[in-house]
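Please fill in the sequence for the structure shown.

STRUCTURE ENCODING:
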C-alpha cells in the first residue's frame, strides 16, 4: 500500500487524468472514504445541498460519455461520481440565492474534496463539466429536484502529466490595505 499524501502534496500533485486502467476496480471502502471526505465539506447553512451518484455500471457510463460529447475516459474509469446540487434544499432557507448560488458552491467544494482525497490515495480524477445536462439527467433517471453539476472520473491513472500552467498571482490578486 502506497503512503497517503499530505494536503500540500495532494494540492500540488493533483492533475486532471484522462487515461485510466479499466481493469483495476476500486474497493468499496476506498470509494466510501472519498465520499465521506466530500460530506465533510462546508456548506451554506450546513444544508449539505448535494447528492452523489456512484456509477460503476458500464451501460450508464457509456450514456454519460454520450452526454459528455464523447469524452471516452469516463467509460475507461472504473467509477464515475456524478455530483448533483439540490437547489430546493438551499432555496428553502435562502430563496433564489440558495437555489442559484449556494447549492452550486456546496457541490464545488465537495468536488474538490473528492479530487484531493482521491489524489491523497494516489488515484486519478478528472472533473467533467462539459455535458448536456438534460441528457445526463435522462441517463441517470434523476429526480426533478436534482441538478447534475459535474461528472468525476475516478480510478487508477495510466498517465502522469506534468503541471498545467497557471495565471500568475499578480494577474489574479489585488491586495486592498
Ligand atoms: C468546472 C470544470 C469543468 C471541467 N470540465 C472538463 C471537461 O469537461 N473535460 C475535461 O477533460 N476536463 C475538464 N475539466 C478539467 C480542466 O480542463 C483542468 O482542471 C484544467 O485544464 C487544469 O488542469 P489540471 O486539473 O490538471 O490542473 C474541468 C474542470 C473544471 C473545474
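FILLED IN BY: designer on duty
SEQUENCE:
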Amino acid at each position: 500500500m502506497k503512503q497517503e499524501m499530505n494536503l500540500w502534496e495532494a494540492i500540488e500533485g493533483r492533475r486532471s487524468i484522462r487515461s485510466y486502467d479499466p481493469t483495476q476496480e476500486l474497493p468499496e471502502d476506498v470509494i466510501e472514504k472519498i465520499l465521506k471526505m466530500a460530506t465533510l465539506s462546508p456548506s451554506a447553512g450546513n444544508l449539505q445541498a448535494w447528492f452523489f451518484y456512484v456509477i460503476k455500471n458500464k451501460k450508464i457510463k457509456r450514456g454519460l460519455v454520450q452526454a459528455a460529447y464523447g469524452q471516452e475516459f469516463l467509460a475507461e474509469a472504473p467509477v464515475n461520481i456524478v455530483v448533483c446540487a439540490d437547489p430546493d434544499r438551499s432555496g428553502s432557507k435562502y430563496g433564489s440565492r440558495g437555489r442559484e448560488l449556494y447549492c452550486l458552491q456546496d457541490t464545488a467544494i465537495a468536488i474538490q474534496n473528492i479530487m484531493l482525497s482521491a489524489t491523497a490515495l494516489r488515484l486519478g480524477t478528472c472533473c467533467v463539466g462539459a455535458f448536456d445536462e438534460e441528457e445526463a439527467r435522462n441517463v441517470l433517471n434523476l429526480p426533478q429536484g436534482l441538478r447534475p453539476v459535474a461528472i468525476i472520473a475516478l480510478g487508477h491513472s495510466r498517465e502522469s502529466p506534468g503541471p498545467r500552467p497557471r495565471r500568475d498571482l499578480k494577474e489574479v490578486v489585488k491586495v486592498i490595505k
